[in-house]
Design a protein that fits this description.
This protein has 162 residues and is an all-alpha fold. 74% of the residues lie in helices and 0% in strands. It contains six helices and no strands. The termini are far apart.
Length: 162
Amino acid sequence: MSEERPTSDAARQEAQDEAVEDVHVTDPDAWSTACEEDLAAEKARRRAQYGPPPGAAAEELRKLVDAVADKLSGIQSPLFGAVAGGAAQQMLNQAVRQAKAAVEPVIERNPDVFDHLSAAGSELLAAYRSAVEGQERRWTSPETDRRDKGEDPGPGERIDLD
């Protein structure tokens, strides 16, 4: 009996330790893999529910220019008259082509600028909303005369018109 046999608790503990080591060895990055799978599933769910997400600001501007150009090209106005209709339509189409030709190189050279402008616009809108909501809250709060309570000592004098 020179060899000591491990007790059943010790053997069980060793087996658990080995199992834990096996899990760590087989997939050392299980948490990030699970997170990536969850994120992909959530994106797919949102895409199915809300449609594709908006693209970059430059791409959205390009789509806007194309949509406006299509609408302007399709206008058949009775104001042009029957005789001048063809010439007016040609001039309109030429103006649309020139506008697209002027906008397209700017979009190609500076796509990041449009992203920055979009972000700045969003921040300005958030600041404006915050200011307006604060004013609305103040305007819609129950009317209390702060001067009667001595909370607003101003340079003016309160005049009672009743």
